[in-house]
Amino acid sequence: AGAIVPDLLRKFGCEIIEKNCNLDSSFPLGAPDPTDSKVAGRLSKEVLEEKADIGFSFDPDGDRLGIVDEKGNIIWNDILVAVFAMAILEKHPGAVIMYNILCSKAVEEIIIKYGGKPFMWRVGHSFLKNKNQEVKAAFIGELSGHFFFSADFYNHEDGIYSMLSLLDYLSKTGKSLSEIISPIPRYISSPEIKVGCPDELKVGLMGKIGAKLRQDFPNVKIIDDERAGDGARFETDNSMFVVRYSQNGPYLTIKFEAKEQKEYDELKKYISELLHSYKEIDWGFGVNIESLD
Q1: Which of 83, 116, 216, 289 could form a disulfide with 111 if both were Cys (CB 3.0 to 4.6 A apart)?
Q2: How far apart are CA 53 and CA 61, in angstroms?
Q3: Burial label, 28 (beta-carbon count in 10 A; 0-12, 13-18, 19+)
Q4: Is the model's pLDDT at 155 over the cut of 80?
């Protein structure tokens, strides 16, 4: 992505400030994961220092991205799903918008508000693409930063096309990214958190965690059918959290949010204590685990 994106944007008339775009397979700044809060935080600082209008980060092959608005706010990719849904529904009124179970409650709320049909499905771009053969969604988005513009582009993820689509929408509306995001319902949200768990233990551990959550939260809405696939999503009117095991590596994924800070802090404390109670968790490996402190 670093070798392609800057010159491409210049061809579109953008003024570009490059940061860490030289190819270096040793990754001296660490894993280039746009969903890592350290990467996002670095980008936020650089946007403010340079007084940029928007900031983009990419993974090495450019199929995923992260964004920061002109105020330095980190915009997690489920909120970007909501932004893209707003744009897509202007071109394709009433369309189905597909997203995965890790996404904010705000995504469904925005899709309904703008006249679309929300469809939530399990994590994993291969599962989403396969399901879309049936659902025929105009757009698919994941918290990880995979976006599929199925009605307007090829049915595969492309972070660079996603970037250009967002810039096109901002140009057409004449608004900044923070202005575009302002009507989206606000939740205090964690990033996507990954905690280590050996492959041979993660499925069994998820079974234990699921049973414990149902015991501790008997009155909440639970989604643990085929829509969840490898975990469970728990929802109240003002909050949600997801715990699942990864199909791709030795870890569990956690995401949680709430309308109010008090409820968010209570969720964080509960989840942290829950995970620390299981010896199967390997705290030596993870992404964004500081979000549980």
Answers
A1: 116
A2: 24
A3: exposed
A4: no
The rounded distance, in Å, linking the Cα atoms of 186 and 200 is: 38
Closest CA to 110 of 137, 138, 89, 125: 89
CA dihedral 139→184→291→124, nearest 10 degrees, is -10
pLDDT tens digits, residue range 100-144?
A: 999 999 999 999 999 999 999 999 888 998 999 999 999 999 999
CA distances from 128 to 57, 83, 84, 124, 151 (A): 23, 19, 17, 6, 15
Q: Which helix (H) or strand (E) holds 55?
A: strand 55-58
Host H or E run for residue 40: helix 37-50
Q: Which domains does the chain have, with CATH numbers?
A: 5-75 (3.40.120.10), 77-181 (3.40.120.10), 188-292 (3.30.310.50)
Contacts of 237 (CB under 8 A, 6+ apart): none
Q: Is 230 helix (H, G, I), strand (E, B) or coil?
A: coil
Percent of the residues in the chain that have a pLDDT greater than 70, as a whole number:
100
In degrees and rounded to multiples of 5, residue 164 shows phi and psi of -65, -35
Q: Are 127 and 229 in contact (CB under 8 A)?
A: yes
Whole-model pTM over 0.90:
yes
Task: Quick: pLDDT tens for 216-275.
Answer: 988 899 898 899 889 999 999 999 999 999 998 999 999 999 999 999 999 999 999 999
pLDDT digits (tens, 9 = 90+) for 39-59: 999 999 999 999 999 999 999
